[in-house]
Amino acid sequence: MDPWLVVGLGNPGPKYAGNRHNVGAMVVERMAADAGVTLRAHKARAAAAEIRLGTMPGGMPGPKAVIAVPSSYMNESGGPVSALMKFFKIPPERLVILHDELDVDFGAVRLKLGGGEGGHNGLRSISKSIGTKDYLRVRLGIGRPPGRMDVADFVLKDFNASERKELDFLVPAGGDAVEALVHRGLTDAQNIVHAH
């Protein structure tokens, strides 16, 4: 079976590490920690590791996956994603992108295939670089900015104290959603994940 490529979006460096925009990267970092692997620098301008996604019924290791976080800025995510796909020979239908989503309530996780980018520069860059919008997305809800706060300011701010407590649930839920997607397919995974 072809491996999957699971990419968590974010901006590089400690300044951005706690930002709402980086929740995708947080999920992949947690997946690496849970699998006991280290994300290592890859020539595709990303930090990547190979893992098995969960366990199959009967205890067999789950499917192979490359998990990665681009080391470029968010609006240049397409280059690293495209390079990883070429390097590991991964087709678009086995690409899963984890990203922050303003149109999903904070703490909720939604799955979808393709569609628009909703003004998300990381998704726009990926769609352009790989030549299709038809890839799987794990949309990690960050909610809408309060009042008249600018969207760009909102996504580049750290989660607030009460949100950080919820992140302990949202981040693992993102990893669970990836496993559900890979093990059960999109429709079944949506039924499970969207029920929460």
* DSSP E strands, number: 7
Strand content: 15-25%
Structural class: alpha/beta
General shape: globular
Helix content: 25-40%
CATH superfamily: Peptidyl-tRNA hydrolase
Query: How would you state the average pLDDT, rounded?
Result: 96
Q: What radius of gyration results from the CA coordinates?
A: 15 Å
Q: Write out the strand line-up for the largest beta sheet, numbering strands in chain order.
A: 2-3-4-1-5-7-6
What is the oligomer described by this structure?
single chain
Instruction: State the low-pLDDT regions, or none.
Output: none
Briefly, what CATH class?
Answer: Alpha Beta
Estimate nothing, just give the exact number of structural domains. 1
Give the CA-CA distance, first to last residue.
Answer: 30 Å
CATH architecture: 3-Layer(aba) Sandwich
Taken in chain order, the helices and strands follow as EHEEEHEEHEHHH
What's the tally of helices? 6
The fold-level CATH name is Rossmann fold
For the report, how would you describe the main beta sheet?
Answer: 7 strands, mixed
InterPro entries: Pept_tRNA_hydro (IPR001328), Pept_tRNA_hydro_CS (IPR018171), Pept_tRNA_hydro_sf (IPR036416)
Subunit structure: Monomer.
Enzyme class: hydrolase
Function: Catalyzes the release of premature peptidyl moieties from peptidyl-tRNA molecules trapped in stalled 50S ribosomal subunits, and thus maintains levels of free tRNAs and 50S ribosomes.
